[in-house]
Amino acid sequence: MLKMILVAFVAAVWLPAHAQVFKCQEGGKTVFSDRPCGAGAKVIDASPATGEGDRSGYNSSSARLQRNMEYLREKEQREDAARSQRYAEEDRAKRLAEIDRKQQARRCNDIRARIDRYDAHLQERNYENTRRYYKAEKVAAEQQFERECK
What we know:
Elements: H1 2-17, E1 21-26, E2 29-33, E3 42-44, H2 56-124, H3 128-149
Antiparallel strand pairs: 1-2, 1-3
Helix pairs in contact: 2-3
């Protein structure tokens, strides 16, 4: 009795592992079966992978992976360089804008100082020609101030 149980167990474990698998077409669909399903049934190898065998694709896959990694590294370096250049250009533009703003403020201060000087000259001079000159200069300076500083 024990012998029969052992034989049945071995048959149950061993037979399905080495059974054939058939590939058939039924009604336009592909069907897999453990029995031939018709005249066009093809036997396919359904044995489990052992991890051994042809490794010729491995080297090409490894080389492809290396090329992809190298491409990604180079792409990242190009992007970093472009980003650094963009930051440098933005920083330069900010510095130039600040310089322009300071120069404009200096020009406006100079014009304002000229207007104040002309006012002081107008208060102390009594000669009509001198007064006309400083008054005209003051008006011109005020117009320049309006154009450039407001």
